[in-house]
Design brief:
two-stranded antiparallel ribbon; flat; 150 residues; 1 helix; 36% helix
Length: 150
């Protein structure tokens, strides 16, 4: 089994201890007589066969206990609280929206003022162009009843 140059090792064999099966005592079967003898029912099938058997009562679920009634006052208080919270939240959102809109309009006004002021500064400080007044060239313009006709 082993080559000649390797030492042989001792092998231990462990045998498992068997576990005895549990002892089962069968429960005694006692015949129980029903309190009343159920009625025997016979049914005739459409093909002429007759089926006979005992009628079995349907299993009825346990009756459901009635839920306690909730007072109208408690319902009204709860609905009033929900409505109040909805109104408060809506007012908070409305005031936040108005504040944001006001800030936005203010920033637009400031932006327009900066752009317009810059345009005016460029016009005033520019060194090129006419040094005099405004020149208007009108050729063959005839003014008749506030209309210009050429």
């Amino acid at each position: 089994m082993y080559p000649d140059h390797t030492p042989q090792r001792a092998v231990e064999v462990h045998h498992p201890t068997p576990i005895p099966p549990p002892i089962v005592h069968p429960a005694p079967v006692l015949p129980v007589q029903p309190g009343t003898v159920p009625a025997v029912a016979s049914i005739v099938l459409p093909d002429g066969r007759v089926v006979t058997g005992y009628a079995i009562d349907a299993v009825r679920p346990e009756p459901v206990t009635a839920k306690p009634a909730v007072s109208r006052t408690a319902v009204n208080v709860a609905l009033g609280g929900v409505g109040f919270l909805a109104v408060c939240g809506g007012l908070l959102l409305l005031t936040s929206f108005i504040a944001a809109l006001t800030a936005f309009i203010g920033q637009l006004i400031i932006l327009a003022a900066v752009i317009f002021g810059g345009w005016i500064a460029v016009q005033v400080l520019s060194g090129s162009g006419h040094k005099g007044g405004t020149t208007v060239h009108i050729r063959r313009a005839v003014i008749k009843r506030n209309h210009f006709h050429g």
